[in-house]
Structure formats: structure tokens, C-alpha cells
Design a protein that fits this description.
It contains two helices and four strands, in the order ββββαα. The chain has 91 residues and is an alpha+beta fold. The chain has one domain. It has a four-stranded antiparallel sheet with strand order 1-2-3-4, covered by helices on one side. A hairpin with a 2-residue loop joins strand 2 and strand 3. The radius of gyration is 17 Å and the shape is elongated. The chain starts with a strand and ends with a helix.
Length: 91
């Protein structure tokens, strides 16, 4: 899977992807979780640019989402940032 041509407009992202030698266009939307610490991209639509069909398996769609979504531990990252700032005397 090769991703290219990212076009962002507010919380909507268009992504071109090459999967199994076919060109796809994906539309994803950023969904912020309720505590405002992170979020993830939700798949809104996709299409095979050659055939006009939605022909990907759920497994491939999940692989796509896994590739574009951050895998951060927001709480741990914030704690590490706070510790680093304290060590530098910036708090």
C-alpha cells in the first residue's frame, strides 16, 4: 500500500492510495475523542479510481486505517513532556 497526494480541508482528508496496482481515492474525517486527547481518522468513503467500485475487503480497509491513524499513548506522552520541561526548569 502506497499513500500519496494528501489533500486536507478542515477535518476532511483525501488520500490517493495504490493497492495491488490499483489507484484508490479515500475520504476520511478526523474524529476527536470526547476528552480532546487525540482522535483518529474515520473512513467516510473510498472508490477504485479505475473501475468506480468499492472492492476492498474489510481487512484491507482496516490495514489502511491502521496505517494512517496515530498509535499514541497521549497520557504517557504528556507525562514525559512535563518531566522533560521540569528537568529543563521550564514549568
Amino acid at each position: 500500500m502506497r499513500l500519496s497526494n494528501f489533500i486536507l480541508h478542515n477535518d476532511i482528508l483525501l488520500i490517493h492510495a495504490t493497492i495491488n496496482n490499483y489507484d484508490y481515492i479515500f475520504t476520511v474525517k478526523w474524529a476527536t475523542v470526547s476528552d480532546k486527547m487525540g482522535g483518529e481518522w474515520e473512513l467516510k468513503s473510498y472508490i477504485n479510481n479505475s473501475t468506480g467500485k468499492k472492492d476492498l475487503s474489510e481487512n484491507v480497509l482496516q490495514q489502511f486505517l491502521d496505517q494512517i491513524n496515530p498509535q499514541w499513548d497521549w497520557k504517557s506522552d504528556q507525562e514525559q513532556l512535563d518531566q522533560a520541561l521540569e528537568q529543563d526548569g521550564i514549568s
